[in-house]
C-alpha cells in the first residue's frame, strides 16, 4: 500500500514530544496502512507456547484479512501457516483453537500433515504434484515460550538481538512449563496506538488503578525526578539498586534494557521490586499460586516487565505470568487479549484461585479500556490538536511514537512500493470473556 501525500505530510510535520495528529487515530486509510506497514511487516506477538501444549493442538490468529494457523507438530515443534487451503482457498480451521490429527479442508477434504505437507487430494489426476501444494508458511519465532509471527517475506533480522538480550531474563520463569489458567479478550472502542500509548506510561496509574498500585510502583515506568517526587524517587531508586544486586547475585538478570525506538524489533525490559514487600501482582501483593515457576525457591522476586513493539507487554513473577497481545480491528476498535499462566502442575482450587489470580488485571484492563475510549472520542473532536507529553512521566510513550513514525517514514521513502490489499476487519461483536481451566 502506497503512502498518500497527506499521510507523508503528517509524518514529516510530526512534532516531537507530542501526541499524533487525529487521523492517526481515526482514519481508516491509516488503519489499512498500519496493517500493511506495521502488522504485516514486523514481528507480532500472538500466542504463548502453552496455547498448543500437545501435538495437533492449534490456535488461529486474525490480522486484518489474514488468518494464521499455529500448530504443534508430532515432533513437538510449533509451526505457523496461512490458514488457507491450496485448492480453492477455503479457510481450513474456523475455530479459535482446537486439536486435530491432520489438517483437513472442510470443502473438498484436501489433507495436510502437521508440517504443512499435502498428503491427500482426491480426483486431481496423475499429473498433479502434491509437493507443489504444501501450505504456505508464516515465519515464527519462539522466544522463551512467547510466540511471534511475521507475515513479511523477509522479516526483520534483528529479532536475534532481542532473543540474545531477553532469553536470560525470561527463561528462568519457565513459561514453556506453564499452562493457561485464564484468558480474557476485551474489545476496546479505540485505536490500537492509544492502547499502546496508555500502556507505555504510569502517569495515570495512581488516579485510575487502585488495584494495580497495591503492588506496582508507578515510578518504575518512565518517571524522572522532579522537586515534587524527589523523596519518593530517591527511596524507590535505592530499593531498585539493592534488590537488583540481590537478584543478579541469584543469576536473575534485572537491569533495564531499553531499545524501544532504535531497533526495528523494539523492546524494553526491567525487573522491579513490588510494593508492600510484594511477591506478586495481586490484591494483597502475595503470590496467587503456591506452585512457583521454574526452579524458584522464594517468592519475592519482583515483577519482570517485558514490552515489545508494536503490540505486546508481559509481567513475569515468581508464581505466575500475565501476557498481553494487541491486534487492531479497525481505526476505532482494538482487541486486547490477556492470558494468565501458572505452573502446569498447579491445581486450581488448591494451589490457586482463578478469581484471585486475575482480579488485578481484570480490573486494570477495564479501567484502561475506559481511558482509551475517552481518548478516542477526544481525538475525533474538531477541537483536538496534538498535546505535549510530560517530559517527567511520558518519555516511553514518545519512544513508541518515534518508533511508529519511523516505520511509516521508512515505507514512505522506500522506492517502488507495491500496493497490497487493503485490510480491514468487520466488527467482532461485544466484549468476549472466556476462562480456560
Key phrases:
alpha+beta; four-stranded antiparallel sheet; 9 helices; disordered C terminus; 26% helix; single chain; eight-stranded antiparallel sheet; 437 residues; Rieske Iron-sulfur Protein; 23% strand; Naphthalene 1,2-dioxygenase Alpha Subunit, Chain A, domain 1
Class by alpha and beta content: alpha+beta
CATH topology of the largest domain: Naphthalene 1,2-dioxygenase Alpha Subunit, Chain A, domain 1
Q: State the major sheet.
A: 8 strands, antiparallel
The average pLDDT is 94
Order of strands in the sheet with the most strands?
12-13-14-15-16-17-11-18
What can you see in these coordinates?
The protein is 26% helix and 23% strand. The protein has an 8-stranded antiparallel sheet, sandwiched between helices. Strands 4-3-2-5 form a 4-stranded antiparallel sheet, with no helix packed on it. Strands 1-10-9 form a 3-stranded antiparallel sheet. The chain folds into 2 domains: 5-41 and 157-434, Naphthalene 1,2-dioxygenase Alpha Subunit, Chain A, domain 1, CATH 3.90.380.10; 43-155, Rieske Iron-sulfur Protein. It is α+β, with helices and mostly antiparallel strands. It comes from Caballeronia glathei. This is (Fe-S)-binding protein. One of its GO terms (molecular function) is oxidoreductase activity.
Amino acid at each position: 500500500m502506497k503512502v498518500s501525500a497527506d499521510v507523508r505530510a503528517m509524518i514529516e510535520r510530526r512534532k516531537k514530544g507530542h501526541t499524533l495528529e487525529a487521523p492517526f487515530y481515526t482514519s481508516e486509510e491509516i488503519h489499512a496502512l498500519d496493517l500493511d506497514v506495521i502488522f504485516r511487516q514486523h514481528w507480532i506477538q500472538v500466542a504463548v507456547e502453552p496455547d498448543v501444549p500437545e501435538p495437533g493442538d492449534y490456535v488461529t490468529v486474525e490480522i486484518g484479512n489474514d488468518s494464521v494457523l499455529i500448530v504443534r507438530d508430532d515432533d513437538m515443534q510449533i509451526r505457523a501457516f496461512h490458514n488457507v487451503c491450496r485448492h480453492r482457498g477455503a479457510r481450513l480451521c474456523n475455530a479459535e483453537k482446537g486439536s486435530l490429527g491432520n489438517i483437513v479442508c472442510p470443502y473438498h477434504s484436501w489433507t495436510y500433515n502437521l508440517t504443512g505437507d499435502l498428503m491427500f487430494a482426491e480426483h486431481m489426476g496423475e499429473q498433479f504434484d502434491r509437493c507443489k501444494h504444501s501450505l504456505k508458511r508464516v515465519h515464527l519465532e519462539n522466544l522463551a515460550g512467547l510466540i511471534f509471527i511475521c507475515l513479511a517475506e523477509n522479516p526483520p533480522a534483528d529479532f536475534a538481538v532481542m532473543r540474545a538480550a531477553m532469553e536470560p531474563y525470561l527463561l528462568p520463569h519457565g513459561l514453556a512449563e506453564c499452562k493457561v489458567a485464564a484468558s480474557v479478550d476485551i474489545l476496546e472502542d479505540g485505536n490500537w496506538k492509544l492502547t499502546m500509548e496508555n500502556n507505555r506510561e504510569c502517569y495515570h496509574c495512581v488516579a485510575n488503578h487502585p488495584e494495580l498500585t497495591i503492588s506496582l510502583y508507578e515510578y518504575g515506568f518512565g518517571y524522572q525526578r522532579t522537586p515534587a517526587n524527589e523523596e519518593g524517587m530517591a527511596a524507590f531508586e535505592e530499593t531498585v539498586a539493592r534488590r537488583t544486586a540481590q537478584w543478579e547475585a541469584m543469576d536473575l538478570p534485572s537491569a533495564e534494557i531499553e531499545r524501544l525506538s532504535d531497533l526495528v524489533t523494539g523492546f524494553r525490559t526491567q525487573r522491579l521490586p513490588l510494593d508492600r514487600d510484594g511477591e506478586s501482582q495481586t490484591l494483597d501483593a502475595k503470590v496467587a499460586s503456591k506452585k512457583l515457576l521454574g526452579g524458584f525457591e522464594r517468592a519475592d522476586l519482583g515483577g519482570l516487565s517485558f514490552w515489545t513493539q508494536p503490540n505486546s507487554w508481559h509481567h513475569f513473577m515468581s508464581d505466575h505470568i500475565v501476557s498481553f497481545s494487541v491486534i487492531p480491528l479497525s481505526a476505532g476498535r482494538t482487541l486486547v487479549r490477556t492470558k494468565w499462566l501458572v505452573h502446569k502442575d498447579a491445581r486450581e482450587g488448591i494451589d490457586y484461585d482463578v478469581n484471585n489470580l486475575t482480579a488485578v488485571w481484570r480490573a486494570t484492563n477495564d479501567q484502561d479500556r475506559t481511558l482509551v475510549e475517552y481518548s478516542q472520542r477526544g481525538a475525533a473532536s474538531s477541537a483536538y490538536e496534538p498535546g505535549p507529553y510530560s517530559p517527567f512521566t511520558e518519555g516511553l510513550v514518545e519512544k513508541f511514537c518515534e518508533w511508529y513514525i519511523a516505520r511509516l517514514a521508512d515505507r514512505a521513502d522506500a522506492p517502488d512500493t507495491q500496493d497490497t490489499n487493503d485490510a480491514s476487519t468487520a466488527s467482532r461483536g461485544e466484549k468476549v470473556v472466556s476462562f480456560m481451566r
